[in-house]
Amino acid sequence: MRSLARALLVVSILGAVCFAGDARAIGLTDCSVTKTDNVATAFAGGSVVYTIEVANGGAKVTGTANASLTDNFPAACTSVSYTSVAHGGAFGNTASGSGNIQESSLIMPIDSGVTYTATCSISGFATGSLSNTVTVQDTQIDLDPNNDSATDTDSRAASPDAVLVDGCSDGKACEWSTLVPSPASWTKGLVDGCEVGTDCGGGQCPDC
Questions:
Q1: What is the CATH number of domain 28-157?
Q2: Which listed site, 50, 113, 124, 190, has its alpha carbon 20 to 30 Å from 30?
Q3: What is the pTM of this model?
Q4: Are 128 and 156 in contact (CB under 8 A)?
Protein backbone atom coordinates (compact mmCIF):
# COMPACT_ATOMS: atom_id res chain seq x y z
CA MET A 1 0.00 0.00 0.00
CA ARG A 2 2.83 2.35 0.88
CA SER A 3 4.55 1.50 -2.38
CA LEU A 4 1.42 2.42 -4.31
CA ALA A 5 1.13 5.73 -2.46
CA ARG A 6 4.76 6.55 -3.19
CA ALA A 7 4.27 5.70 -6.85
CA LEU A 8 1.24 7.95 -7.07
CA LEU A 9 3.20 10.76 -5.38
CA VAL A 10 6.04 10.44 -7.90
CA VAL A 11 3.57 10.49 -10.80
CA SER A 12 1.90 13.57 -9.32
CA ILE A 13 5.23 15.40 -8.96
CA LEU A 14 6.33 14.49 -12.48
CA GLY A 15 2.97 15.62 -13.82
CA ALA A 16 3.39 19.02 -12.13
CA VAL A 17 6.89 19.39 -13.58
CA CYS A 18 5.63 18.50 -17.05
CA PHE A 19 2.77 20.98 -16.76
CA ALA A 20 5.20 23.75 -15.79
CA GLY A 21 7.37 22.80 -18.74
CA ASP A 22 4.37 23.00 -21.07
CA ALA A 23 3.55 26.50 -19.76
CA ARG A 24 7.07 27.63 -20.52
CA ALA A 25 6.81 26.08 -23.99
CA ILE A 26 3.65 28.09 -24.65
CA GLY A 27 5.61 31.24 -23.82
CA LEU A 28 4.96 34.20 -21.58
CA THR A 29 4.85 37.66 -23.13
CA ASP A 30 4.52 41.22 -21.90
CA CYS A 31 3.15 43.46 -24.61
CA SER A 32 3.19 47.15 -23.76
CA VAL A 33 2.33 50.36 -25.59
CA THR A 34 3.07 54.05 -25.02
CA LYS A 35 1.83 57.13 -26.86
CA THR A 36 2.75 60.83 -26.80
CA ASP A 37 2.67 63.90 -29.04
CA ASN A 38 5.10 65.77 -26.74
CA VAL A 39 2.79 68.79 -26.37
CA ALA A 40 0.27 69.84 -23.74
CA THR A 41 -1.88 72.03 -26.03
CA ALA A 42 -3.22 71.28 -29.51
CA PHE A 43 -4.32 74.17 -31.73
CA ALA A 44 -7.48 74.11 -33.82
CA GLY A 45 -6.44 74.17 -37.46
CA GLY A 46 -2.97 72.84 -36.62
CA SER A 47 -1.54 69.36 -36.29
CA VAL A 48 0.06 67.02 -33.76
CA VAL A 49 2.54 64.21 -34.35
CA TYR A 50 2.08 61.10 -32.20
CA THR A 51 4.86 58.64 -31.42
CA ILE A 52 3.52 55.19 -30.57
CA GLU A 53 5.81 52.48 -29.20
CA VAL A 54 4.59 48.89 -28.96
CA ALA A 55 6.92 46.21 -27.62
CA ASN A 56 7.29 42.75 -26.09
CA GLY A 57 9.92 42.55 -23.38
CA GLY A 58 10.78 42.12 -19.73
CA ALA A 59 12.80 39.95 -17.35
CA LYS A 60 10.20 37.14 -17.25
CA VAL A 61 9.27 37.10 -20.94
CA THR A 62 9.91 33.72 -22.58
CA GLY A 63 7.86 33.82 -25.77
CA THR A 64 7.08 35.60 -29.01
CA ALA A 65 4.00 37.81 -29.04
CA ASN A 66 1.35 37.65 -31.74
CA ALA A 67 -0.56 40.84 -31.05
CA SER A 68 -3.19 43.16 -32.48
CA LEU A 69 -2.87 46.94 -32.26
CA THR A 70 -5.80 49.37 -32.49
CA ASP A 71 -5.71 53.16 -32.61
CA ASN A 72 -8.97 54.89 -33.55
CA PHE A 73 -8.23 58.59 -33.91
CA PRO A 74 -10.76 61.19 -32.70
CA ALA A 75 -13.16 62.96 -35.05
CA ALA A 76 -11.20 66.20 -34.55
CA CYS A 77 -8.44 64.65 -36.67
CA THR A 78 -9.66 65.48 -40.16
CA SER A 79 -6.86 63.40 -41.67
CA VAL A 80 -4.20 61.04 -40.31
CA SER A 81 -1.13 59.60 -42.00
CA TYR A 82 1.37 57.27 -40.37
CA THR A 83 4.55 55.28 -40.87
CA SER A 84 6.04 52.46 -38.81
CA VAL A 85 9.46 50.90 -38.28
CA ALA A 86 10.01 47.46 -36.71
CA HIS A 87 13.08 46.62 -34.63
CA GLY A 88 14.57 43.62 -32.85
CA GLY A 89 13.13 41.09 -35.30
CA ALA A 90 9.50 42.20 -35.11
CA PHE A 91 7.36 42.06 -38.26
CA GLY A 92 3.76 42.17 -39.46
CA ASN A 93 3.43 45.96 -39.18
CA THR A 94 2.02 48.22 -41.89
CA ALA A 95 4.92 50.34 -43.16
CA SER A 96 2.72 53.34 -44.03
CA GLY A 97 -0.94 54.18 -44.20
CA SER A 98 -3.71 56.66 -43.50
CA GLY A 99 -6.65 56.76 -41.12
CA ASN A 100 -6.97 54.54 -38.07
CA ILE A 101 -4.21 52.05 -37.23
CA GLN A 102 -5.51 48.46 -37.24
CA GLU A 103 -2.85 45.76 -37.02
CA SER A 104 -4.09 42.17 -36.67
CA SER A 105 -0.84 40.19 -36.32
CA LEU A 106 2.24 41.94 -34.97
CA ILE A 107 4.88 39.27 -34.42
CA MET A 108 7.28 40.44 -31.72
CA PRO A 109 10.05 38.17 -30.39
CA ILE A 110 11.55 38.88 -26.97
CA ASP A 111 12.81 42.49 -26.66
CA SER A 112 11.46 43.62 -30.02
CA GLY A 113 8.79 46.09 -31.08
CA VAL A 114 7.45 48.62 -33.57
CA THR A 115 7.55 52.44 -33.57
CA TYR A 116 4.71 54.33 -35.26
CA THR A 117 4.73 58.02 -36.19
CA ALA A 118 1.25 59.40 -36.88
CA THR A 119 0.35 62.95 -37.94
CA CYS A 120 -3.12 64.21 -37.09
CA SER A 121 -4.44 67.32 -38.86
CA ILE A 122 -6.87 69.05 -36.50
CA SER A 123 -10.12 70.64 -37.65
CA GLY A 124 -10.17 74.42 -37.45
CA PHE A 125 -13.58 74.13 -35.77
CA ALA A 126 -12.49 71.63 -33.13
CA THR A 127 -13.34 72.36 -29.50
CA GLY A 128 -12.64 70.66 -26.19
CA SER A 129 -9.67 68.46 -25.37
CA LEU A 130 -7.92 66.22 -27.90
CA SER A 131 -7.72 62.68 -26.51
CA ASN A 132 -6.52 59.52 -28.23
CA THR A 133 -6.08 55.94 -26.92
CA VAL A 134 -4.10 53.08 -28.44
CA THR A 135 -4.51 49.44 -27.34
CA VAL A 136 -2.45 46.28 -27.85
CA GLN A 137 -3.77 42.75 -27.25
CA ASP A 138 -1.75 39.53 -27.37
CA THR A 139 -2.92 35.99 -28.07
CA GLN A 140 -0.33 34.61 -25.62
CA ILE A 141 -0.22 34.82 -21.81
CA ASP A 142 0.43 38.51 -21.08
CA LEU A 143 2.29 39.02 -17.80
CA ASP A 144 1.07 42.59 -17.27
CA PRO A 145 -2.20 43.63 -18.96
CA ASN A 146 -2.05 47.00 -17.18
CA ASN A 147 0.38 48.37 -19.79
CA ASP A 148 -1.69 47.28 -22.79
CA SER A 149 -3.19 50.72 -23.49
CA ALA A 150 -2.00 54.32 -23.50
CA THR A 151 -3.83 57.64 -23.80
CA ASP A 152 -2.53 61.07 -24.78
CA THR A 153 -4.72 64.05 -23.89
CA ASP A 154 -4.10 67.69 -24.87
CA SER A 155 -6.05 70.79 -24.04
CA ARG A 156 -7.22 72.56 -27.17
CA ALA A 157 -6.99 76.23 -28.11
CA ALA A 158 -7.76 78.47 -31.07
CA SER A 159 -4.85 79.39 -33.31
CA PRO A 160 -2.72 81.84 -31.35
CA ASP A 161 -2.52 84.65 -33.89
CA ALA A 162 -4.87 86.40 -36.33
CA VAL A 163 -4.68 88.88 -39.19
CA LEU A 164 -7.21 91.07 -41.04
CA VAL A 165 -8.03 90.41 -44.66
CA ASP A 166 -8.09 93.90 -46.12
CA GLY A 167 -7.22 93.46 -49.79
CA CYS A 168 -10.66 94.19 -51.19
CA SER A 169 -11.03 97.04 -53.69
CA ASP A 170 -13.02 99.32 -51.39
CA GLY A 171 -10.34 99.10 -48.71
CA LYS A 172 -12.62 97.71 -46.03
CA ALA A 173 -11.41 95.14 -43.55
CA CYS A 174 -13.55 92.20 -44.59
CA GLU A 175 -12.98 89.19 -42.41
CA TRP A 176 -10.68 87.68 -39.85
CA SER A 177 -8.55 84.69 -40.63
CA THR A 178 -6.05 82.81 -38.50
CA LEU A 179 -2.47 81.83 -38.98
CA VAL A 180 -2.37 78.04 -38.92
CA PRO A 181 0.43 76.46 -36.84
CA SER A 182 2.34 73.58 -38.38
CA PRO A 183 5.26 71.59 -36.96
CA ALA A 184 7.92 73.48 -38.91
CA SER A 185 6.54 76.94 -39.62
CA TRP A 186 3.56 79.30 -39.72
CA THR A 187 1.47 79.21 -42.88
CA LYS A 188 -1.20 81.58 -44.14
CA GLY A 189 -4.84 80.72 -43.64
CA LEU A 190 -7.59 81.06 -46.25
CA VAL A 191 -10.81 83.08 -46.16
CA ASP A 192 -13.48 82.15 -48.71
CA GLY A 193 -10.75 80.62 -50.86
CA CYS A 194 -8.56 83.76 -50.83
CA GLU A 195 -5.12 83.87 -49.31
CA VAL A 196 -4.63 86.26 -46.44
CA GLY A 197 -3.61 89.71 -47.69
CA THR A 198 -4.87 89.31 -51.25
CA ASP A 199 -8.02 90.56 -53.01
CA CYS A 200 -10.68 88.33 -51.52
CA GLY A 201 -13.74 89.01 -53.62
CA GLY A 202 -12.85 90.00 -57.17
CA GLY A 203 -13.52 93.65 -56.30
CA GLN A 204 -16.39 92.95 -53.95
CA CYS A 205 -16.01 92.48 -50.22
CA PRO A 206 -17.60 89.46 -48.53
CA ASP A 207 -20.05 90.34 -45.78
CA CYS A 208 -18.21 91.55 -42.69
A1: 2.60.40.1510
A2: 50
A3: 0.67
A4: yes
